[in-house]
Design goal:
By secondary structure, the protein is of the alpha/beta class. It has one domain: UDP-N-acetylmuramoyl-L-alanine:D-glutamate ligase, CATH 3.40.1190. 40% of the residues lie in helices and 24% in strands. The chain contains nine helices and eleven strands. The strands form two sheets. A nine-stranded mixed sheet has the order 3-2-1-4-5-8-9-10-11, sandwiched between helices. A two-stranded antiparallel sheet has the order 6-7. Helix 5 packs across helix 6. The longest helix has 21 residues.
């Protein structure tokens, strides 16, 4: 319908707390790409707070995107985040088939757990479905916990290169083309955090960046949103991972300076202007 690139982002909407769609929309937009949200649920604020409003959008998702079918929309990228049920995974699989072009880049962030703990929403059947969805990913961005869940690997807080390679090979065998395993801690150096890149050509690299502060809500959403935007803009995966890690680190520092509670997420708004100027692609 027009020449501007578009990414469909399938995720929940949380009005407060900086996560999911409220993270992806500004980051992808600041990268010069139209962000087209597909809500899976509506939250007043994310579940890290003591109380919240919640409205499941599963039954409305097909009705919602059926109007896009009538418009003849296609997307340069499709990015899927948190999915709360097997039905939602099936809807996402249908969406990818309906709205993809041959060159559409599929980014899957399989939100399943963190710090060695599986989220309460993850059932055995949902795990199988998410593994099936990972098979269509051009870029898969699990953290180390999620990578272990997807591959049936015992969780190790400080995985070595051999373990990371084994996990990456298993993910490639599932069908994923390029892997970015995030949140890798080095037991001998708590001041750094690593991201392990494994490409479909067999090349790989572990990139480290400074680790600041404690965990914050929405960090993975910020990271994956930068990766999705850069992929559609044609940036290299390695450069994109470096850029995303830097953006997250600087956002954490700014959040700490503002003394924001961890559940309020990353204070990234003042840094959005750096995203496009750091891209290989200029408008």
């Amino acid at each position: 319908m027009n020449k501007q690139k578009k990414i469909a982002v399938i995720n929940d909407f949380s009005g407060y707390g900086r996560c999911s769609l409220t993270v992806s929309i500004p980051i992808i937009s600041a990268s010069g790409i139209q962000c087209c949200p597909v809500p899976t649920a509506i939250f007043s604020n994310h579940t890290g707070y003591n109380d919240y409003f919640f409205d499941d959008y599963t039954d409305k998702m097909r009705l919602y995107y059926s109007k896009w079918e009538k418009l003849g929309l296609k997307f340069n990228g499709i990015y899927s985040g948190f999915l709360g049920s097997e039905r939602q995974v099936e809807i996402v699989e249908e969406f990818i088939k309906k709205f993809s072009l041959p060159e559409t880049i599929i980014i899957i962030d399989p939100v399943m757990g963190d710090n060695g703990r599986i989220y309460a929403t993850l059932t055995r059947e949902l795990c199988k479905k998410l593994r099936q969805l990972a098979a269509v990913a051009d870029i898969l961005t699990p953290n180390i916990t999620e990578a272990c869940i997807l591959t049936g690997t015992s969780y190790n807080e400080y995985p070595d290169e051999k373990t990371l390679l084994s996990i990456a090979h298993k993910l490639i065998s599932i069908g994923s083309k390029n892997i970015v395993i995030t949140g890798i801690r080095n037991g001998s150096n708590s001041s750094s955090i690593g991201n392990f890149i494994f490409k479909q050509d067999g090349s790989y690299k572990l990139l480290s960046s400074p680790a600041f502060g404690n965990g914050r809500a929405g960090t993975g959403d910020v990271f994956a949103s930068v990766i999705a935007a850069d992929a559609v803009n044609g940036d290299s995966l390695e450069k994109s991972v470096v850029k995303a890690a830097k953006f997250v680190s600087e956002s954490i520092l700014l959040s700490d300076e503002q003394q924001l509670p961890s559940q309020d997420g990353l204070c990234f708004e003042g840094l959005l202007g750096t995203l496009l100027c750091n891209s290989d692609r200029k408008l």
